[in-house]
Amino acid sequence: MRGALLVAGTTSDAGKSVLTAGLCRWLARRGVRVAPFKAQNMSLNSMVTADGAEIGRAQVMQAQAAGIEPTAHMNPVLLKPGSDRRSQVVVLGRPVADVDAVGYRAHKDRLREVALASLARLRAEYDVVICEGAGSPAEINLRAGDIANMGLARAAGLPVLVVGDIDRGGVFAALYGTIALLEPADQALVAGFVINKFRGAPELLAPGLDQITALTGRPVHGVLPWLDGLWLDVEDSLALDGPRPPTLPPHGAQTLRVAVVRPPRISNFTDLDALAAEPGVALRYATSPGELADADLVILPGSRATVADLGWLRARGLAAEIVRRARAGRPVLGICGGFQMLAGEIVDDVESCAGPVEGLGLLPVRVEFAPEKTLGRPEGRAYGEPVRAYEIHHGVVAVEGGEPFLDGCRAGAVWGTTWHGALENDGFRRAFLREVAAAAGRDFTPAPDVSFAALREARLDALGDLVERHLDTAAVERLIERGAPDGMPVVPPGGPPG
């Protein structure tokens, strides 16, 4: 089998990333050399490849589903929003500019060429490339400069599957409207639909499937059922509003309660997935001081806007509550941007251009932002356990005291590190939780045999199973090998074809 396919969606978080990963795992299990691709990704969840390139975390997860090492060509353009109007532009794993929407247009032609070259490289190296779109292809205000959805499909001749989330409601209107808003040349490449997150009676859904096919001339190639506990490395914080890793009930003497502060520009919150998957840990996200009240551990996660999010913490009253807790000996962990917030002073002439800013003063460190971004895959030890992690930051932390903790430090019941992914190391995670439980006075012992890597693999296998059992895989194979069928009908905005 050789070819490529684009998975588009009616909305953000419709299931594009999950379906792409499922297709990669299904094909890989059949012995097909397959790779994921996303031309342009807007996400604050990123990771570092083995050769030091920063790409979207979802593409790393999809590469794992395919059983291959991720590379920058799988996500050649990454946009990291620092505010509602400006984003850092990362090209082939390296930041090249910080622009607003108008300034970004000047980069479009070059970025299109970069994306197409990366896709061509992957297609030459692998049998099949499963491409993921961005947002929705029906964002008609963005179509002229599109390089991730129909602009990519047209340039590379890709057949397109459109996935819709039925759990949100209105899925048939979303599928029909997506097609109807596309120009005829774009519609010609849309070969079918996939409905995602279905939970209900199939016999009630069947008439709708028949009608959407009659109205658009395009078949529904599968209905993926709702699957509880199927969380994976997602792209944006919209996913935090939905189900996250299953935990035990948040009450009882043996349950360790963890509150994660959720600032506006939270990044790399996948750091917490391994912690939330630990039996006996109840994790929640917090935006007010009261939500920290009964927590045994408070975590300040990564942030794309450290100084701005620190101001948000102060305005919300969260900063004062975190300081009060820490001074009372109640555990606090800062990761990357959250670690920077715990410093005595932050000097930022790069990200916010705010200059010197007073931090929370809970760790004996000073932070100064550097123009060059630090990207790496460090290794070390803590609590006698090996730790492999990754780092992505402009803030350079100078440790001036305390006890060593990974690359950062600890002072009393406050820990800080710039390393992302440390909690995915099973031995380290258990040792850290034992320390936290002791500091919190909680009678809690981590499970001795939980493997987060095995749990992630099992969930990727579950995605492969979904594809194999609930998609018309023969039809998907034909699309990959032959492209969209000729003569796909045009759906006019005003009504069905006729």
From TrEMBL:
Pathway(s) the chain acts in: Cofactor biosynthesis; adenosylcobalamin biosynthesis
Question: What is an example of a Pfam family matching this protein?
Answer: CbiA
User: Keywords assigned by UniProt?
Assistant: Cobalamin biosynthesis, Glutamine amidotransferase
Mind telling me which residue stretches traverse the membrane in this protein? none
Q: Which PROSITE patterns match?
A: GATASE_COBBQ, GATASE_TYPE_1
Query: Domain CobB/CobQ-like glutamine amidotransferase, which positions?
Result: 257-427
In alphabetical order, the GO MF annotations are: ABC-type vitamin B12 transporter activity; catalytic activity
Q: Where is each CobQ/CobB/MinD/ParA nucleotide binding domain found?
A: 6-230
Q: Where is the active site?
A: C336, H420
The answer to whether keyword Transcription applies is no
- In Gene Ontology terms, what is a biological process of this protein? cobalamin biosynthetic process
Under the heading SUPFAM superfamilies, the entry gives: Class I glutamine amidotransferase-like, P-loop containing nucleoside triphosphate hydrolases
> In UniProt terms, what function does this protein have?
Catalyzes amidations at positions B, D, E, and G on adenosylcobyrinic A,C-diamide. NH(2) groups are provided by glutamine, and one molecule of ATP is hydrogenolyzed for each amidation.
* Similarity comment: Belongs to the CobB/CobQ family. CobQ subfamily.
- The protein here is known as Cobyric acid synthase
Upper lineage is: Bacteria, Bacillati, Actinomycetota, Actinomycetes, Streptosporangiales
Gene encoding the protein: cobQ
